[in-house]
Write a structure and sequence with these properties.
Blueprint: H1 2-21, E1 26-40, E2 53-68, E3 71-77, E4 80-84
Antiparallel strand pairs: 1-2, 2-3, 2-4
Length: about 90
């Protein structure tokens, strides 16, 4: 949790300092969210006694983009969490 707060504060400070340095750039902040479903027929990578598993990955992120005349800037952050259907200990 502290890591997310640190990254958020750094983005806010970076946005303020970069905007004052180049006022002719247009800035865009884009939030996004995603859900991904994955199936593995051998989750433990074993030759014998294969174990299948469904894995759900959920995440949200931010992208900061600056567009200027002949220059550009892009910064993104997308943390995610994985949830296993059968083996909850792998979450």
């Amino acid at each position: 949790m502290r890591y997310i707060i640190f990254i958020s504060a750094a983005l806010i400070l970076l946005t303020g300092s970069v905007q004052s340095a180049s006022a002719r750039m247009s800035w865009t902040i884009s939030p996004d969210a995603y859900i991904q479903q994955e199936y593995s027929d051998n989750i433990s990578q074993a030759r014998k006694d294969r174990d299948s598993e469904w894995i759900t990955v959920v995440g949200a992120g931010l992208r900061l983009q600056g567009q200027g005349r002949g220059e550009g800037f892009s910064l993104g952050y997308r943390p995610s969490a994985s949830f296993y259907h059968k083996n909850d200990s792998n979450n």
